[in-house]
Amino acid sequence: MAISRTGDWVRARELLSNTSGRLKGAVERAMKQEAHALRNEVVSGLTAQAPGGEPIRPPAPLTLAARQLEGFGGTKSLLVRGDLRNAISVIADGDEVFIGVLRSAKSSTGESLADIAQIQEFGGPPVIIPITPKMRRYLAVLLKRSGTPQRSGSGRGVVVTQVPARPFLRPAFEKLRSGATQRLLNRIARQLGLAP
Question: SS3 for 175?
């Protein structure tokens, strides 16, 4: 039994020997493109107050009154200074990509933005704060500015507060999850010159 070769074997060897490096580069570029598309979805979602199409819970009236006292006029959730939105990063390492807030990210006031992002994404535990006379005066001003009627307290001398969950990463991730495989394959094919 004899084997006969047909076609351009030199070209076939050349394509096969160069493909692994080209494929690796194409996969890495496609992953970065997908990651940046996801980051853009999160950032634009925060700006529009609906990442992934899911509306973010608006700030409470007392929160808005506190912002005004501190000199901030905005009414959007998670966007007092824009620190959190601007900290959303894409870090690529080969075919692995991180999209989110880096542990090292700090706000303009030095707070950990990763901790803030986690509390906003999942909500925080209840916090019990003892009321001082100075705090009582501050709360009275906030209640008046927010239009919230003042009521007599429980007499326990504490305030219990809790940060509600305002997911801004997960809804965007869920939105882009569908079709991700096909988008990646299409991007890889374009990188390799196999698709327009």
Answer: helix
